[in-house]
Amino acid sequence: MKKSQIALIIAVVAIMGYLFSLKPVALIKPKETRSSAGANVTEAKAATATNINVEYVSVAAKQAIGNNLAGEIGALEANLKTAGNDADKLKLEKQLAQKWDDVNQPAPGAFYYQAIARSENTYQNWINAGDRFNDAYKAGVDTLAQPVYVTNAVEAFENAAKLNPDGLDAKTGLGIAYVNGGAPSPMQGIALLLEVIKKDPGNRKASLNLGLFAMKSGQYEKAVERFKGMITQKQEVEPYFYLAESYKQLGMKKEAIEAYQNCKTLLPDPAFGQRIDEFIKELKN
Fold this sequence. Notes:
- There is one protein chain.
- The chain is mostly helical and 285 residues long.
- It has helices spanning 3-19, 31-35, 37-48, 54-65, 67-81, 86-102, 106-119, 123-139, 146-163, 168-182, 186-199, 204-216, 220-233, 237-249, 253-266, 270-284.
- The longest helix is centred in the middle third of the chain and has 18 residues, at 146-163.
- The protein starts with a helix and ends with a helix.
């Protein structure tokens, strides 16, 4: 599966999770939670790093993909445990990483990409690992695992940056991980993302996350500008959805409805469409 397809599915999972949540916890966080995020990750790292591993996250992932696919992955895992040398082990780790990509489960895939990067210390290998850890954090609901995803994402992107200090993918991923709690202050991550935008104004990932982080901090006007800029470049589901949410928070009902309708057109999923219709109905009342 192509990287762009994986990214789209992660985006849809994140949106659907928000849509069916009881309240917008993904968007609004108490000030004290944001300010202490880095400390929380540090504490969680010490408490859970030894428990949150590929075996742990694979349990839930296998339940999500069904018995047949889980059986195929289980067979590869069994072969990995009995691999006779490092070359065979690395080959199986690559197969498992790809398998988890194919079934849109970034969490277990992230650990395999991490193992690959530790064996083959290349920029792209670390980017692959870091991206999956960030995706796992974004799509995940396991509060025990999420700080570990952030910690591992920071490690991956910092290692990538050592190999290529000017690499924008490393700066972008590290900025996202920092804001998610990988640094004492979220502003360290914002600064990195703004640096990326300065060098590459059309960088989708940096723009999207700057918009999301603006929403988290209640800066909806800034979020609107970010998402509108993205849509000008390319019409996509995720920026349209969060544009609608930002408009709604600003009380701009007409604009929110239009953005929701565009979002629905781009993702013709019955459950998604039904939920969007409910949002539009609420705004019209």
